[in-house]
Amino acid sequence: MTAVPPPPMSLLAELTHRCPLQCPYCSNPLALEPKAGELSTEEWCDILDQAAALGVLQVHFSGGEPMARKDLPVLVRHAAKAGLYSNLITSGVLMNRDNLAELSAAGLDHVQLSFQDADPQQAEIIGGMKGAQPRKIEAARLVVEDGMPLTLNFVIHRLNAERVPAMFDLAEELGARRVEIAHTQYYGWGLKNRAALLPTRKQLEDTEKAVAAARERFGNRMAIDFVTPDYYADEPKPCMGGWGQRFLNISPSGRVLPCHAAETIPGVTFPNTREASLADIWGKSELFQMFRGVDWMPEPCRSCDRKEVDWGGCRCQALALTGRADATDPVCRRSPDRGLVDAALSEIAGEPEAFVYRRYTTPE
Amino acid sequence: MTAPSPALSEERVPTFARGTRLQHDRVRDQWIVQAPERAFLADPVAAEILRHVDGASSLGGIIDTLTIVFDAPRDVIARDVLAMANDLADRQVLVWKA
């Protein structure tokens, strides 16, 4: 691939893997980064400047729990100065009036607050943290009171899919401007817990109906993002809008990745902001060029008329299910490996299995 | 694009909703609207209108200014401005000052 890639639009800054919650579908890798390995404030500020110069428009401060980083207001202020739109992706459990006021004064543009369920007891079972729900509700109130736009994010799975209508009620009650109803994606922790989390087809259809009803009910008052579990799809999702096309992810220790699960890809050196510039990593690194565009594609992708629509689907899912990162995403009906997905779907007829918490202290 | 609401008076003062703003994208040399979890392209007409949204100017004032800038009939400019303001208010990009 010799063509110059378009500049990236969006940066997911994973400031830390530390988190008081233990959600079994966490998007962090199975091997979590210890605090000692985290980038410093100065390193992050330099990354924000580089990202803005490269063309990034929005930075999403995430984790782990990004509010576990004491320097978050400094980073938000720096992002604002660089002209970046800043979004805080948080569980809300560490938020209080004072630290939100500090972030607001630093120029934070938007908060995306995660809820594990609308039912407090079920939410706290999934999150593995007692007393989390009232703290989240208080966090939502503080954000709305400040006037900042609020998105509520719900990750959907077999154990909470019934309560999507109640999730919309909660969002309305709290004054959220956006809601994300995002079915679990099955890599990393989600894949480890797939037998407990994968919803039935009936559950999926019910969530689709609940989303359609909410769209009707709220109109333009509330923006709704709906992410389906692609196991039930016939064609794969255009993961990250294409590998290395729009999106940058930076891990707590400075690894630069085309998506948050890419550290699973074997046989490649992960570029690091401590060793190279963001521009060089985006434009020239082996990792970012590996699956960029269409030249890497195998059949049936290579001759498929959807190859620039879905970009072959998700590389991490292909790897996780087939053992080959350069295989067609097995979600695709045209993939020779589709049977692997159908087998997982047929396993959910019985009782759901118990899940394993994502514990910060458990290195894999 | 919806038709301008008949209720939209030129006396109203639009302002950007908290968490949305117009921004010049230096790298791609284009105007964009930054909003929660998305940035969308403002075409040249939209950008020209939105650059005059300052939280003090009324729609009528913006129309007057653009009528001079573009040397165009006022009713043509008014139609564009009111339709766009209505649409963006619907999408929670603009709100009205009390």
TrEMBL record, chain B:
| Record protein name field | Pyrroloquinoline quinone biosynthesis peptide chaperone PqqD
Q: Give, as in the UniProt entry, the pathway in which the protein acts.
A: Cofactor biosynthesis; pyrroloquinoline quinone biosynthesis
Question: Which InterPro entries does the record associate with it?
Answer: PQQD, PqqD_bac, PqqD_sf
Q: Where are the transmembrane segments?
A: none
- Signal peptide location: none
> Subunit arrangement?
Monomer. Interacts with PqqE.
Superkingdom per UniProt: Bacteria
Q: Which UniProt keywords apply?
A: PQQ biosynthesis
